[in-house]
Design a protein that fits this description.
By secondary structure, the chain is of the alpha/beta class. Helix content is 32%, strand content 23%. The chain folds into two domains: 250 residues, Zn peptidases (Aminopeptidase), CATH 3.40.630.10; 126 residues, Alpha-Beta Plaits (2-Layer Sandwich). Strand 4 and strand 5 form a beta hairpin. Helix 1 packs across helix 3, helix 3 runs parallel beside helix 10 and helix 5 packs antiparallel against helix 7.
């Protein structure tokens, strides 16, 4: 028996409810998870929650069907990026339908996909499933991928999925690989003083800019390290410094400066290359700083080091998507990071595929096309062919 596709108004009602939770990354999400658990409970054979150390943020792993290995995991994250409501034409935490689009924070990234999955759950649960479908939902993906490792560590007690679809907004294009996402905060500590006598102080800001300059100077070498067969655009590992802060006044030598930076490796050896080269730059800077102030320091905190989704030609996850899409399909790569690399590293073959356009994610007036939601749920409905055979 084929899975009946839910009416679009039912799906949009679920999306309305999800968007109404302002589940911004690094804030509690348990109210949203409790809402989803209440919806899932009549249809699931098992629902497991894992939490952060505060107990205010939760991952969800729900199973529909038999408790056996070999099922399919439909994976998303509950959190969204922050908003400045003044920049929005519609209320950001209200799903607002305008013609053929639904506006609201998370509609594309990635509550639209989650709504499609939830809308299908009652229909999948009505089938005589031979293999299960799992719904995985994590916290704090948008700021350091904090939830997924906790969820993955808990999977030893649960049936092992044979493939995962991570529903990031790809415009319903199949993505078979993406770059890694390594994020850091570096703090420079110098010694303050009067700007008229700078040699008697140690400027944290000046030395931070030199550290940053050293990082940016690696750009040409990283470009030259790109694999000849790189599928990415740009084809090489990139770096970026996104936030810089420090100092008290223009007439005061700054004692402190910190900056947030990242790199997106296309290969694991590039991360080691960057770290080795920056260690040499840092050692030179520290030697200068400590001549004046022996307590000077440069310290780097790891926010996350998430490996990319590696290209695997014979991937069960890609085979699954070919089945759901009805044959051969173009498979692309992207430069942004997702939790798919984490799941792959944990032994779960993964693919990235979902409704919405990454170009509108993280921006004011984020939206998803209603047609994308309809197409997404229609494809996922074909899971019956995989799970009942």
């Amino acid at each position: 028996m084929a899975v009946e596709t839910p009416p679009i108004e039912e799906l949009l009602g679920i999306l309305d409810d999800l968007v109404a939770f302002d589940s911004v990354a690094l804030t509690p999400n348990v109210d949203l998870v409790d809402h989803i658990v209440a919806y899932l409970r009549p249809h699931c054979t098992d629902i497991a929650l894992t939490h952060d150390e505060t107990g205010t943020k939760a991952n969800l792993f729900a199973t529909i069907g038999p408790a056996v290995d070999g099922g399919v995991m439909l994976a998303g994250h509950s959190d969204v990026v922050p908003v400045d409501a003044d920049d929005w034409a519609t209320p950001p935490f209200t799903a607002t339908r305008v013609s053929d689009r639904v506006y609201g924070r998370g509609t594309a990234d990635m509550k639209g996909f989650v709504a499609c999955v939830l809308a299908l759950v009652p229909r999948l649960a009505s089938l005589d499933l031979v293999r299960p479908v799992h719904v995985a939902l994590t916290f704090d993906e948008e700021d350091g991928f904090h939830g997924a490792p906790i969820l993955i560590d808990s999977l030893g007690d649960h049936p092992r999925p044979s493939a995962a679809i991570v529903g990031e907004p790809t415009g319903l294009q199949v993505v078979g690989a993406h770059k890694g996402c390594y994020e850091y905060t570096t703090s420079v500590t110098g010694m303050n003083g009067h700007s008229s006598r700078p040699t008697e102080a140690v400027s944290a800001v000046h030395h931070a800019t030199r550290w940053i300059g050293g990082l940016l100077d690696l750009g040409a070498e990283l470009a030259g390290r790109a694999p000849a067969d790189s599928r990415f655009e740009p084809p090489h590992t990139t770096t970026n410094v996104g936030v810089v802060g420090g100092g008290l006044a223009r007439c005061t030598v700054a004692a402190d400066c910190s900056f947030d930076w990242e790199m997106r490796p296309v290969q694991g050896t590039d991360a080691g290359f960057v770290k080795e080269r920056m260690a040499a730059v840092e050692a030179e800077l520290l030697a200068e700083m400590r001549i004046v102030h022996p307590g000077a320091s440069i310290e780097t905190e790891v926010v996350c080091e998430i490996d990319g989704l590696e290209w695997v030609e014979a991937s069960p996850a890609l085979d699954l998507m070919r089945t759901l899409l009805g044959g051969e399909t173009d498979v692309g790569v992207v430069a942004y990071g997702t939790e798919a690399g984490l799941y792959q590293s944990a032994g779960i073959p993964s693919v990235v595929w979902g409704p919405g356009d990454i170009a509108v994610a993280h921006r004011p007036d984020e939206f998803v096309e209603v047609a994308d939601l309809e197409a997404c749920v229609a494809v996922l409905a074909r899971l019956d062919e995989v799970l009942t055979a």
